[in-house]
Every structure is written in C-alpha cells, then in structure tokens.
Amino acid sequence: MNQFPLFQESSKNRRPLAFRLAPLSWNDYIGHASVVGPDKPLRKMIDTDRLASLIFWGPPGCGKTSLARLISRTTRSECIALNAVQSKLSDIKAAIDSAKAVPHQRTIVFIDEIHRFSKTQQDALLPDVERGVITLIGATTENPFFSVIPGLLSRCQVIELSAYSSEDMEKLLKRALKKSGSSAPWTPDAVELAIRHCGGDARKLLNLVDYTLLLDCGSITDSIITDWSQSSGIAHTTDAHYDLISALIKSMRASDPDAALYWLARLLRGGEDPRFIARRLVVFASEDIGNADPSALPLAVATFTATETIGMPEIRITLGQAVIFCATAPKSNACYSAINAALEWVDQGHIEPVPPYLRSPSTAKNGITYDYPHRNVPARSPQPLWSESTTFYTPKPVGHEAQISAELSDWAQWRLTARRVPQSDNIQNVD
Fold first, then answer.
1. What are the residue ranges of helices labelled H in 26-82?
2. What contacts 289, CB < 8 A, 6 or more positions away?
3. pLDDT tens digit sequence for 52-72
4. Does residue 198 or residue 136 have the better pLDDT?
5. What are the structural domains, with CATH classification, of the chain?
6. What is the Cα–Cα distance from 137 to 157, expressed in whole angstroms?
7. Which burial class, exposed, middle or buried, applies to 230 when counting CB atoms under 10 A from its CB (0-12, 13-18, 19+)?
8. DSSP 8-state code for residue 160
9. 77-83: strand order across its sheet
C-alpha cells in the first residue's frame, strides 16, 4: 500500500507535466550524477535497500521530491507523505502509528518543506527516527543547519542538491518534448532563452513546456518564451537572500561594478526589500571604503533615506548609483580593523584609568594641567592621552587615507620633538 498522496495518480487532465514526467526508474532520472551516480554512496544505499534517514536540501525545482518518489518506488518500503505547511502534530503521530502497525516493513515518512515544522513538531520525530520505526526523508529549500533542530540533523544524512546545469536542463527539455508528444519544434534561440530564464529550476522549465502545448503555432520561438516569462520574476529562498547580498558585497569589494550591478539586479528581480540592500551599503561604506573616501558613507546614508520614501521601480536608479560608487571607490578596511582591534584590546583586560588632566572639568589636578591643542597650528599636543602601547589605526596608502597616513606620520614626529622641549606653565585650561 502506498500512502504517498504526493505520488498518487490523479486525473491525467489535471496533472502538470512536471508530475507526469517524474522519473520511474534510474534510466529516467536526469542530473545529480555527483550525488546519485551508480558508484556514489547514496545510490548504493538505495540499490541495496539499506536506506538511512535523509534530508534533501536544494533550491526549488532541483529534483528533491522526484528523488524521494524514486526512492519510494525502488525500495521495499511503505510510504507516507506530509507537507509541513499543512500538517499538524497529530498528522505526525498518525504517520508514526501507521509505521508501528507494520513493524516487519520499513516505513518512509517523506516531509516536504520540513524547515516549516516547529521545534515541537520536529522533536516529535526524534524517538522514532532514533529507533528506526520510521525512515525520514525531508526536503527543504532552506539551510537545514539553521532550520532543522540539531537532534534531527544528527540522525539524518544531509544531501545537498544544486540547481540543474544548462546541459541537464537541455536534456530534460528534449525528454519533455518527446514524452509530451509536442509537434511544434523549438528554435535554438527559444531553447537557450527558456533554459536561461528557468535558472536551473526543472519544474519551471516543464511548466513552460506545458504552456507551449496549449499554443497552436508552427514553432516555438524566443518571442513566445519572452511573452511567457517577461513578468515572472526570479524568486529566491532565504539562503539565496544571503548568498546574493554576499555576492553583491564581495563584487563591490573587488571593485567590479558590472558584477555588482548584476547581483543587485538579481536581488531586485527576486523582490528583495530595497531598504535591506541600502542598509548593507551603509555598512559597506564604513567597513570596506572607510576614510579612503569619506563621502561614501553620506552617500550610502542618503541612499537609505531615499529607500524610505521611494519604492520600486524608481529606487533602482539610486541603488544602482550607490553600488557603482561603492564598487569604484578606493578601498580600505583600516577603520573596520581599527575599531575591532581597540575592542579586542579592551576585552583582553587593558583597562586604564583616565588621566587626571583629561577628566571633566579639565582643570589642574595633581599639579598637571590639560594642554589645549588649539594653541598649536595645526591642533596638536605632546601630552600623553593614554599608555600608547599599541596602534589600532593604520591607514592604507589609498585615496584620502594616503593623506591621513602622511599627516599621522608627521604628527608622530612632531610629538617626539615637542616632548623634548620643556612645556610652559602658562597653558590654557579649556574643558
């Protein structure tokens, strides 16, 4: 008995092409040779019917459910499927009770979108996964190391599936056209555009083929694909949210405006909140540009302010300008490194008292008077301000920091010379 509702037959008129073309054997399965190739451990585990609990992790349309369906067909197992979006704790307990009713038979419990289960729901699986009452197969588009509880992770093998390659997508397209009985040929440009548009999402590609079956035309051209895909957007998962912003930041850090603009476009087309992008630009302006170009920070702050009042699509222009500026600006992480070094110094226990002449009010204390820097031009003072046992800020010889470096070097030399000269007792006291 197969209790896999996700895998049950339904009216052929209602079944999407992606469902109808689900692989029934390894001969039908396309892609992921590095994971389920004949010589790979997972494939051997399946072929020898010695299945362990698994969690399939990958982007939408990468074949997670298809692989689970194939496992259910090629192993001697009872199969129960749950969707974490709809299932309750009672559904989990019912599945476990069904497994206990057939102790002589392995029961696979497939849970789609397992990252959506609460901690309590995931906890409910632990004892029976541990004892082998059920063999768990979970599928998730989110990073399981963040979204699945540690106890369940320790009892499962995480299998990461990547998006389909262009080559595998082309094989899938050809198979879909053959199996569907499509009589309309696809032009090479249409094939290339469809594969590029679907971005490794097999389900999206098969849905596109399904759409073309409804058309009464001589051939499928790139213009037809464009008409279908012009407003589809590029959705991304929580993991991709972080991966894409990381790619944007690293491209700006490497001073490549074209790469930075590409990743910005991916974020925007994926529906990312422009305010999130702008906040990252503010951080980048201080962390990666700093004093090499001090104008980066006010520009980034102005960009963030603009996102508070201007939405898409107009804000793309402001974000694009800021990204190009940040990518082409001179780079220095000296400010970022300096504050981190100072904090680490304090954390190591270097806690110094404030010198009496630096306290407020800064008047004579213990016979020592505050040396007012503005009595010198430029404003300098040889008076010690702390133990000066280390250096936190080391400006880089780029952009404005090159000038800062020269000024700090000159200041250090001046201070050494000034300290050799006896100081006048007639020093102005100013808070």
1. 33-36, 41-47, 64-74
2. 296, 297, 326, 329, 330, 331, 332
3. 999 999 888 899 999 999 998
4. 136
5. 2-160 (3.40.50.300), 166-229 (1.10.8.60), 238-328 (1.20.272.10), 350-418 (no CATH)
6. 9
7. exposed
8. E
9. 2-3, 77-83, 106-112, 135-140, 54-57, 157-160
Q: What are phi and psi of 83, to 5 degrees?
A: -115, 125
b (16+ CB within 10 A) / e for 231-255 = eeebebbebbbeebbebbbebbbee
Average pLDDT, integer, range 119-146 = 92
Q: Is the pLDDT of residue 296 over 90?
A: yes
Check the CA dihedral 363-366-368-370 and report its sign. Answer: negative
392 CB burial (10 A radius; 0-12, 13-18, 19+): middle
The β-bridge relationship of strands 135-140 and 106-112 is parallel
Angle at alpha carbon of residue 152, lines to 146 and 155, rounded to 5°: 125
Torsion sign, CA atoms 51, 55, 58, 59 = positive
**Which among 127, 38, 40, 45 is positioned nearest to 54, based on CA atoms?**
45
The Cα-based distances of 234 to 81, 200, 265, 267 in angstroms read 28, 11, 10, 9
Give the tokens for residue 276.
């999130």
Element of type H or E holding 55: strand 54-57
What does the pLDDT read at residue 239? Answer: 65
Alpha-carbon span 326 to 206, nearest angstrom = 40
Over residues 164-220, the pLDDT tens digits come to 999 999 999 999 988 887 778 899 999 998 998 888 899 999 988 888 888 877 888
Percentage of residues in the chain having pLDDT higher than 90 = 49
pTM: 0.64
Instruction: Compute the CA torsion angle 194, 197, 200, 201 (nearest 10 deg).
Output: -90
Identity of residue 86: Q
Q: What would the two tokens of residue 410 be?
A: 């000159």
CB 142: neighbour CB atoms within 10 A? 17
Closest CA to 393 of 369, 412, 378: 412
Q: Examine the pLDDT at 102 and tell me if it is beyond 60.
A: yes
